[in-house]
Amino acid sequence: MEQQSGRGRVVAIVGNPNCGKTTIFNELTGLRQKVGNYAGVTVEKKEGFVRDDRGGELTLVDLPGTYSLFANAPDEQIASDALLGKGGRIRKPDGVVCVVDATSLERGLYLVSQIIDQRYPLLIVLNMADAAERAGIHIDIPRLSTMLGVRVIPTVGSKGVGIPELKEALRSDLRVSPAVRKWQLPDVVREEHEELAGMLVQTTQTDEAVAYHDAAMLLSTPRSLDEFNGRIAPHVLDHVRQDHQRLGGLGYDRHSVFVESRYAWVHSIAERVAAFGPAPRSVTDRIDAVVTHKVWGIVIFLALMMLMFQSIFTWAAVPMHLIGEGFGWLSGLVSHLIPPGDLHDLLVDGAITGVGAVVTFLPQIMLMFFFLGILEDSGYMARAAFIMNRVMGRVGLHGKAFIPLLSSFACAIPGIMATRTIENSRDRLVTMLVAPLMSCSARLPVYSLLIAAFIPSTLVFGFWNLQGIVMISLFLLGVLAALLVATVFKRTILRGESPEFILELPPYRWPSFRSIFIQMWSRAKIFLRSAGTIILAVSIVLWFLSTYPKLNHGTPSEKLSFSAIGRAGHVIEPVIRPLGFDWKVGIGILSSLLQREVFVSTVSTIYNVQVGGDTPHELKIKMQNDRDPVTGLPTFSVLTAIGVLVYYVLAMQCMSTLAVMRRETNGWKWPVIQLVYMNALAYGAAFVVYRVGLLLG
Amino acid sequence: MLCTSRQHGDVIRKKAMSTNPERLSTTPAGRRVVVRKLQSSPQTAMRLRELGLRESTVLRVVTNDAPQLICELRHTRIGLHHRVAKDVLVSDVE
Predict the structure, then answer these.
(1) Longest dimension (CA), chain A
(2) Mind listing the pLDDT tens digit for each residue in A486-504?
(3) Which site in A139, A353, A409, A419 is 20 to 30 Å from A498, CA atoms measured?
(4) Which of residues 249-268 of A touch B (CB under 8 A)?
């Protein structure tokens, strides 16, 4: 985790999962961090800046959502550590803005009570005030503010309502902490708690507020005290053990007494400040009855996936064609301006064609993010996890693991990060290990190219495009492989019980198209930046390697074979020949280690050097027409194309993903295991596909 | 008509205490119940309590489609596996 900048005051934004913290953070800072309608969108801290009343800058830190400072999962631990000043390099905040979902007042105030215990200067943001009104909840805000002793500001973050008042309050009101802790423990428990807190202050050098929290945690923890060996002095742990026995002997349930005492206080406040009308239920109930049904729920989920992949193929066709034409026009313009020669070939066959071949797929990637954005923003994502819990349970994983896996359709990196919401460390590790098997957007250009070139665009049952069916089959293959590998890990080296399935389901809401378009645009920028840097550089290097050393006489194929890349390709060809791949595919696979979509620019550059041509979408025709110079047979058949597709579904080719794995697992062991098993699986599966295909003729 | 949560809760709880507890996992969809006891493991019980699912909480079963159910506490919906729900004892309030 990066060091926070030292400028000005630091204010943390905290709250329950999915209460709208990041929306508030974005409104305050002008940033565009990802938001979504499910718990666990924010799994790491994010920083932004706001000007304060002294002309300085206030650093706002958006923390992952948590129900409590007693963390259950790594994302909650980040929030808890930041607030308790235990995060090592994270600077303890000078104040806290606690965002409370107005429709879940009591649960929000439970966290507020823990923050008040930490003596922070505090502001409470009562967010989603409009949703509360619609739900028939009326909250007396001045009274709530008086009872808590802190300013309470109602907001509707998604519409910017209350943000000016919040900005003003951040500049002026966030100076004082509530005077006293408000909730009360039974006397006996309070005495033990205070005594233990005093011992912790003396033995661990922590401040009184943190010791107060730690003492409560030690007294109520359901975990074994042995886990605290080395962190807490042995005589203090012995004292805690005696406390456990004493409280049990007096009839107190130590596990629940702290939670219940806090909630008693929270409840007393909610009773005085909130009035509840009847909860509107009919529409949401009817949707949930169908969407989470054990049969219809899965049918609807699969239908949504089908719709997504069919649409990616059909809706993107026109803009893809236009982009291809645009690059064709650019090639023509360069050809017109620059006379034939190496510079012309470098620009046309290397740079423009290589970059154009990849950029052509931008509409498909944006469409994919559009659909995923709708799933995330509507509240469906958590429902998908709920219905898939049954399937995930069969492989030994928690339904929660499905959200990171679904996120990995966009990119495995946020998917791996999203595993921080998983409480059990083994389940989390298994989910991280299989997340890259989900087909990410970087594979989309490879799939699209090979499907468009070798799978006929015919209708099945009169309305399903065969190309779309193959596309979804590839995504399903990734899902099936992930489930299979997860089963193996869970039954072997990562065996263990999963925690019970408890998952909050957010209310349905209309997706915010503004936020979806922001996500699509930010993804498009990443894609275009990559096209303008890595892919451009690779295309230029590949052009040189596929042009030099030059053979002055001979066919284009002979010249290509004579070039550096041709020679390198022939060296690696024996390794991939058993899969039915020729050396050009081998070079494509090797260059994909930088990024998967580089495969497209690589084969585009190689074929352009060999055959020539101006537009990127001629690539599929060049691939269809390519012949083995020795046998005269097509280099690519449908079978070869399927083999390459299967290889790309299963192979680990993303260095960034491995780097994130190393960071999340604190070492190289698991990234190496992931690299080895995925590539072995990919090689084996492609081999089987090719050999069985040959046998079947 | 609006009523305070105190009035509302008291009426419901009094009614509920007079009936026999049953397992949440066996409660049909549509029923409103009050939580009588959490018999879960300490870790699970603590999680449920922190989510607001505590003794004396009134909740409504939205769907119950074995082996999972969805219940609603005030305006929050929580999905639970039956393994969790069977350790939550509830009483009917209607």
Answers:
(1) 97
(2) 999 999 999 988 788 999 9
(3) A409
(4) 255-256, 259-260, 263
Q: Kindly report the CATH number that applies to the domain delimited by A10-172.
A: 3.40.50.300
- A contact residues 497-536, partner B, Cβ 8 Å cutoff: 499-507
- Strand ranges of the sheet holding A137-139, from the earlier edge strand across to the other edge: A137-139, A274-276, B3-4
The partner residue sitting opposite B79, judged by closest CB among A68, A270, A503, is A503
CA distances from A51 to A98, A162, B39 (A): 19, 17, 51
**How many angstroms separate the CA atoms of A38 and A17, rounded?**
8
CA A263 – CA A227 distance, rounded (Å): 28
Mutation site for B-interface testing, chosen from A130, A224, A505 by largest number of B Cβ within 10 Å: A505
Would you call A103 and B54 a contact, using CB atoms and an 8 Å cutoff?
Answer: no
Q: HSE (CB half, 13 Å, CA atoms) of A500? A: 22
User: Domain spanning B5-92: which CATH class is it, in words?
Assistant: mainly beta
Q: Give the CATH architecture of domain A187-276.
A: Orthogonal Bundle (1.10)
Encoded tokens for A243: 């406390």
The Cα-based distances of A9 to A48, A58, A154, A174 in angstroms read 12, 5, 23, 10
| Secondary structure class of A14 (helix, strand, coil) | strand
Interface test with A, best of B81, B88, B94 (most A CBs within 10 A): B81
Residue from B9, B92, B52, B88 nearest A16 by CA: B52
H or E stretch at B14: helix B5-17
Nearest-neighbour CA in chain A from B50: distance (Å): 6
d(Cα A543, Cα B90) in Å, to the nearest integer? 72
Nearest by Cα to B84 from B48, B33, B34: B48
DSSP letter (8 states) at residue A668: S
A435, A419 Cβ separation under 8 angstroms: yes
Which tokens go with A339? 């006379």
To the nearest whole angstrom, how far is the Cα of B16 from the nearest Cα of chain A? 19
Give the SS3 label for residue A503.
strand
Cβ neighbours of residue A510 closer than 8 Å, sequence gap 6 or more: A378
**Residue tagged 């046309």 (tokens):** A348
Per residue in A420-469, pLDDT tens? 999 899 999 999 999 999 999 889 999 999 998 999 888 888 777 888 88
* Averaged pLDDT score across all residues of chain A: 89
Whether B2 sits inside 8 A of A275 (CB atoms) is yes
Pairing of strands A274-276, A137-139: antiparallel
Task: Write out pLDDT tens, residues B50-72.
Answer: 999 999 899 999 999 989 999 99
Q: Choose, out of B77, B83, B88, the residue to mutate when testing the contact with A (most A CBs < 10 Å).
A: B77
Segments making up each domain of chain B, as ranges: 5-92
SS3 B92: strand
Secondary structure (3-state) at A627: strand
ipTM value > 0.90: no
Cβ distance of A276 and B74 shorter than 8 Å: yes
Residue at token pair 């299963």: A650
At B65, the amino acid letter reads D
Indicate the burial class of A271 (C-beta count within 10 angstroms; 0-12, 13-18, 19 or more): middle
Which of B50, B66, B78 is facing A259, going by the closest CB pair? B50
The verdict on A137 touching B (C-beta cutoff 8 Å) is yes
By DSSP bridging, strand B22-23 and strand B88-92 are antiparallel
- Alpha carbon distance A179, A159 (integer Å): 33
**A608-641: b (≥16 Cβ within 10 Å) or e:** bbbbebbbbbbbbebbeebeeeeeeeebbeebbb
- Tokens describing residue A383: 């429902």
